[in-house]
Amino acid sequence: MVDELIPNNYEAYMNHEIVVSRELYDHYDDTRIKYRVPEGINEDVVRAISKYKNEPEWMLDKRLEALKIFESLKTPTWGPNLEKLDLNKITYFLVPDAKANADSWNDVPENIKKTFDRLGIPEAERHSLAGAGAQYDSQVVYHKIRADLKSLGVIFEDMDVAVKEYPELVQKYFMNKCVKPSLHKFAALHGAVWSGGTFIYIPKGVHVDMPLQAYFRMNTKGMGQFEHTLIVVDEGAQLHYLEGCSAPLYNASSIHAGCVEIFVHKNARMRYSSVENWSKNTYNLNTKTALVEENATMEWVSGNMGSGTTMLYPTSILLESGAKADHIGIAYAGNGQNQDTGSKVYHLAPNTTSTIKSKSLSKNGGITTYRGLVKMKKGAVNSKCSVTCDALMFDDDSQSNTYPSIDVEEKEVDVVHEASVGKISEEQIFYLQSRGISEEQAVQMIVSGFIEPLLKELPLEYAVEMNRLIELEMEGNLG
């Protein structure tokens, strides 16, 4: 059926109007609402969020401080155009009529449970996860961890719960060392209105053998989702954390401005994998930063799809000797999408190492941009960094940009940057067709080969999801 919809000549195929099947993600529920604040951002809204959550005074103070910073900062103008994002028409806190933090899927309302069933969350938890959390709009509706990990002292909680149950740990790390509200306007906005998210603490020497996962679903029209993820991997410990995100398509703007703070202590190892598949009416303005100590390793594996506008630059700060960071990212931009992504690494100590591998695909006028920063501070002797950026464009209407920034203050370091931009050529398609392969299959083979080195770094279920999403984007009208 698909083959009948693909024109016979290559040029027509490459310019063919795409109708992408996002049925899995664009379904939305008419969920009953327990509580919501009025649209717009002001002190009354911030106080109402904190009061509803019955937060301690210190958290309200942090929120109000972040609000003042937000009001004092200007909207960034150096990246994608954000003029159409009206922050006064966003709902910043909305609670569905569902039990918070249920530890059984049977306690989750049926319509909400069906949404997560479609996304495969309960099934994945049963087969390949050590624990899972699920957030719906502003509230975590499900959260559970394996009992044996809990007995080892592993903490895996909804961030709202952690504020009350582990106040000393949260106060020690929350938005005061890793990501400060003053970093940029949307970090400050997050600090004022954050809700839900994940708190993880892995004790010294504990290796979590299976991933922990959280999935964030933004269901309501005109919503903002601001989950906070705070992960502490203590000395010699190991963790792999998975994060998935999606939202249905509406004709009104939504915003996602989450925040991820990761602390990787001495000799620890942390891998953070995420596939973000927000709808095209969503502004994805996320902030992710890790502080990496002596001989510790931080790995970022990121897939960015879906959203109309993305500004996301996972950051590693290598604090002590032997610290290492690996950044791997895939971005796809189709019609009406601007994916502005990249990585930042700060080498602040000697013998630190980092690698950045970025792949991007753009089609039907989509815009992809790699925007990165590598900073070698004075004294970071014997440090090394390798940056590779590869872009693949499908047509003359699409764009691919590379804005690397390399700031070296130390002579005794090695820094390498490579970038390439290519276009699928008619000769490549012809060669594969001469081997009996259809046009559609030929294009998919070329793209699969292009992204395969990065897909293999994703967990199997995430790699399958990413590959399938890209296949859908390349197909014609699926009917």
Give a quick summary of the entry.
The protein is α/β, with parallel strands linked by helices. The chain has 13 helices and 26 strands. Helix content is 25%, strand content 35%.
> Helical residue percent?
25-40%
pLDDT < 50 runs, ≥5 residues: 1-28
Helix and strand content put the structural class at: alpha/beta
What is Rg? 22 Å
- Calculate the terminal CA-CA distance, rounded to whole Å: 8 Å
| Oligomeric composition of the shown chains | single chain
Q: What portion of residues belong to β-strands?
A: 25-35%
Count all strands and give the number: 26
Total helical elements: 13
**Could you say how many structural domains there are in total?**
1
Largest sheet: 14 strands, mixed
Overall pLDDT metric: 83
Shape: globular
How would you explain this protein's 3D organization?
It is globular, with a radius of gyration of 22 Å. It has 13 helices and 26 strands. Strands 5, 6, 8, 9, 11, 12, 14, 15, 17, 18, 20, 21, 23 and 25 form a 14-stranded mixed beta sheet that branches. Strands 4-3-7-10-13-16-19-22-24-26 form a ten-stranded mixed beta sheet. It is of the alpha/beta class. Helix content is 25%, strand content 35%. The N and C termini lie close together (8 Å). The chain has one domain. Mean pLDDT is 83; it is low at 1-28. α3 (43-53) runs antiparallel to α4 (57-72), α4 packs antiparallel against α10 (185-193) and α11 packs across α12.
